[in-house]
Every structure is written in C-alpha cells, then in structure tokens.
Amino acid sequence: MAAASSTRVWTPAGRNRDRRRQKEQWGNPVTYFIALIFIAVCIAPVLYLVLGGFRTNSQITTSPAGLPHPWVLSNYTGILKSSTFWGEFANSTVVALVSSVGIVALGLMVSFVIARYDFKLKGAMYSLFAAGLMFPLVIAITPLYIVIKDLGLIDNLFGIIIPQIAFGLPTTVIILVPFLRAIPKEIEEAAALDGASRLGFFARMVLPLSLPGVVTTGILAFIGSWNNYVLPLYVINSQRNFTLPLGVQQFSSQYSTDTAKVLAFTSLAMLPALIFFSIFQKRIVGGLTGAVKG
Amino acid sequence: MSESLGTDTVSGSQSQGTFGAGGAGVTASPAPPRAAARRRGRARMRLEITLLSGPAIIMFLAFVIFPVAVAAYYGFYRWHGYGPATDWVGLNNYKLIFTDPAFQQVLWHNLLIVVLSLVIQGPLAIIMALLLNQKMRGRGLIRVLIFVPYVISEVIVGTGWSLMLQANGAMNDLLGHIGLGALQSDWLADPNLALWTLMAIISWKYIGFAVILMLAGLQSIPDEIYEAAAIDGASFWQMQRRITVPLLGPTIRIWAFLSIIGSLQLFDLVYIIWGQYVSGTAGTSTMAIYMVAQGRDAGNYGYGSAVAVVMFLISLVVALIYQRFVLRRDLRGAVTEGTV
C-alpha cells in the first residue's frame, strides 16, 4: 500500500501504524476534492441520461442542461409497457447468460490443462490463446460473418453466442491460468493420496478454489456480451431477435425527434449492466489484481 | 484438430505389437506390467487433455483463427458475398487500399487515436491511482463510480454524448449558463474539433479501466520498500517517482498494450455518433469504419476482407514490436515519455 496523501508533509511514523485499527480514517480533504471532480466528470453524463428521461421534450428544448421540472414518468412507463423493450431485454439476457456460461466452462477446462498438465504442446496452447488477444472481433467481423452465414446462423441468437464464446476465451484463459497455477501442488498430492483422480481433483478442489477468478471472468464476459454491438449488427436482421444495443440504435433513429423518449430508453438499457456491476464490483477489481500479479 | 493437438504430445509410446498390430492391443504385448501401467496412465492423460481442451480449441480455431484465414483467401478476389469467389484479382485489392487517399486518412486518424489515448489517459490514470491508493473512507465507492462509464455499452455512450454535444444540446447550454459562452461550438461537426471530441469521449469511457488496473498494480508493491526509502530520507514525491512508477511499469505496459490494440480497432463509438459517412467529413473515421463501409455496405466482401487482413497485420506488427522492445525491458520507466 503506497500511501499517497497529496500535500500533507509525509512522515514514516504515520504509515501502517493504524493497521490494526478497525475504522478507516477519513483521507485528506484535497484528495477527496480531486476525486470528487473526477467522479463528477464520470457520473454527470450518466445522470443526465437518467434525469433527461424524466423530462418532457419542451423542457429539454428550452433548457437542454436543466433538471426535470416537473418530473414526468410517462417516458419510462411507456417503454416499460412496450413489448419491444422487454423482447430485446430477454434476447440480451439469453445471449449474455449462455455466452458467459460457455466462456467460463470452456475457459476453465482449457486453463486447467494449461496450468496443471505437463505435455509438449502446453506452451503452444497458451500462446495460441494469448495471440487471440490480438484478433479483436471487429477485425474479424467480415470473414466471421461469412462463416456464420455458411453455418446458417444468420438472424439466430446462436450466431451471436457461439462467436462470442470463441472470442471471450483468450481473456478468460489469461486470467484463469495464474489462478489455477497458484493452487499448491501439495493439495493436488493430498487429493491423489486420498484416491482422487486428476478429474476428481478438478471437480472437488479446483472449482471451489478458483471461484474468485471464475466469477471475475464470468462478469467480464457477461458485461462484454451485454454491450456487444458489432456482432449483432452483422448477424441479426429481424426486430424480434434484436439485442438491446441494436434496440437503442433503432429506437434513437426512429424517435430522433423525441429526445426525452430516447434518453429514457438508453437509461433503461444501461441499467441491468450497472446493477450487475455494482453487485459484483469487488470481484472485478480482485480478479484484475490476480491477473496483474500473475 | 484437437486430436492432433492432444495426442501428438506423447510420441513413440506406441507399443511394438509382436504381430505388427498397431497400438490397439497394447495390453497384449509382453511388456513389463509397470510399463503397461505407465502407458495406460499416459493414454488416460492424453484423453483428459483432449477432452478438457478440445472444445475450447475447436471453438477458437473455427471462429477466431479460421475467419482470419478466410479473410486472407477472399482478399485476393473481387467478390460480392454470393456464390463461390471466382474473380481472382491477386494483390489488386491491397494495391487499391494503399493508394486510396481515404484509407491513408483513416490510418492517420487511427495512429493519432493510439498516441492520444496513451498520452491523455496514461498520466491521468497513474495520478488518480496514486491518489486513491490509500486507506480512507469511501474509497470503495469512489472506485465503483470511476468504473461506471466502462460498464456502459458503446452504443449508449455514443447515443448519450451525441445528444449532449449537439449544437443546441446540453453541453453548449451548460457553458452558456456558467459564463463560458465563448467556448460554445459545434463539437461533432467541426472538422477541427471532432477528433478531440472523440478523444474526450474515449478518455471518459475507458479511463476507469486504466485507473482500476493501475490500482491493482499498486496493491502488489510491498510496503517494506517504502519503509526502507523513508529511512533513507526519501520525500513523498521522490518515492512516487523512483519507486512507485518504476514498479508499476509492468502494469502500465499491459495497459498500454490493451489500449493500443483497442484504439486500432475502434468502431462502435464512431459508428454510433458520426455514422460512416459523416465521420469522413468530420475527420473521425477509423480503419474499422472504412472496412465496414467498403465491405459490408458497398457489398465488396473481397475488398473488405483485404482491409481486415491489413488491419490484422498492422495489429500483429505492433504487438510483435511491442513485445520485442517494450515488454522485454523490465523495470524501465513508463511507456509514455515525459509522464513522470
């Protein structure tokens, strides 16, 4: 922990003396002030979207940067009553869930092999997935579209899910391999003495022990899938298969004159990812820490 | 595919069957029992490796590696996406790409975006991380709030910002209210401004990720080093400069790599805010925008594939150079010059 108080004269005695103290101290006011400015810049645009949904178009036209006065709920309630929004929400949810489960399951299996088995092609296997970080989806989208078309998966949710699983594997492998390597050899030996096979060890010991890494990769995969735009743009043609990002784009061009409605729709579309993130935020930071150390 | 990967690992362990039969009747061979057991163990291990890694490798090869090969193939044809490609044009697509002024322009934009992302986000993220890397109340909340823009999809970010930055939008209105009316401008359409507007939006969206990554890196620096430095009489700022930033080097380099690759393939934000035609005149179009416009929307899948290959090769060359020269030199200063 590097202490970083920005202006106070720094004294060595002050550091770490309070380690055992239960209550966290208030930091330096200057730090809070700078952090506050930074956060305001990060959050204000998001708040603008949410609050804008509670205004009428005439309010927005006369005073674009103003606050809702009076607050109107009709924009939000109208969207929450529409089957379009809920259909897109359902599609996004299905795609994100199936993709994350697939990414984590396949990624964990292959990471286990790379981390704990000893064989000649181990390094090559790891390099293969590490190289995948350089094949971002956008670059591959034109040929990928051709492959998906040949498989007959155009306008099918699986046409999004399967490529997403494939493209999500590199990040997952990079994060999980250090986690799985860190499991002490002694545990594996002890399990072997107790008569567990390697696969038994995988199921009984590795799965529970690597849970933090699994949750991290799962959340990253979920958010990545939830926000993916290029793939649905290419693969999905019909409204009933739209995911939310496509829905947002279509809604904002359809109601381009109705700014308040668009703001309400975008706010509702980003809400699930934000809720999901705020529940699991500690996990994300924790998982990234492990990956950086590894 | 996975068969060859999984089973080539142990070569020459096939038994020399007495009747020249292959490895099928392994146990029938009069080998010592221990060797047979080891063989069985090896075979089982190979089976496990194949079963566990097979699905992931097949998926990865089929949907990540194979499409790139497909792109390389179609890049040699003039092809419109229907039926077999027959109109072989050799390297003509590539010649057209490199002589097209529009492509030179988007390549230049991309390089600017790469450099500006590093120069703007790097120092800011390091300073914020140093500031937030202390035990204080509300630290968790601050971290969460900083990360929020990163979690929101590019489509929503793009839609929201383009509404706010319209000439008659909230940004200009706000500037008028706080007495900075002189600064009101046409943020999105003015060709002298649009790229900077894009950079501001990119920085806003991705800096949270950089800060969180830097914080994660700071956590792994042991306290004892600072204690030793304090005994040697180092000041706070000396410590940051001589200890923290150098030790943060690996993290900074990982972040810079991810940032460079991300900048090279920037698509969503520009496509949503400017659309592919306006982005040309506003000066914000990128290689990916060019690829989609030339390939998908113009129906020239051969040409689009060739652009994809060019983009891939540029990313690959950058990545190789980066790994060769940057990631190898451990414990050197930050990637971005003059930040510390």
| Gap between N and C termini of chain B | 49 Å
Please summarize the sheet with the most strands of chain B: none
Give the averaged pLDDT of chain A, no decimals: 82
Q: What's the Cα radius of gyration of chain A? A: 24 Å
What's the quaternary structure here? heterodimer
Overall SS class of chain B? mainly alpha
Attribute tags:
heterodimer, A: 294 residues, mainly alpha, 13 helices, 71% helix, globular, disordered N terminus, B: 340 residues, 69% helix, flat, disordered C terminus
Short description:
With 294 residues, chain A is mainly alpha-helical.
Question: Explain this structure to me?
Answer:
The complex is a heterodimer of chains A (294) and B (340). By secondary structure, chain A is mainly alpha-helical. Chain A has 13 helices and no strands. Chain A has helices at 29-52, 57-62, 74-81, 83-116, 122-131, 137-150, 158-181, 185-193, 198-209, 211-227, 230-235, 244-254, 259-293. In chain A, helix 5 (122-131) packs across helix 7 and helix 7 (158-181) packs antiparallel against helix 10. Chain A is globular, with a radius of gyration of 24 Å. With 340 residues, chain B is mainly α. Chain B contains 15 helices and no strands. Chain B has helices spanning 2-7, 33-74, 92-99, 101-132, 139-151, 154-164, 170-177, 194-219, 223-231, 236-247, 249-264, 268-273, 275-282, 287-297, 301-327. The longest helix of chain B has 42 residues, at 33-74. At the A-B interface, helix 1, helix 4, helix 5, helix 6 and helix 7 of A face helix 2, helix 4, helix 5, helix 6 and helix 7 of B.
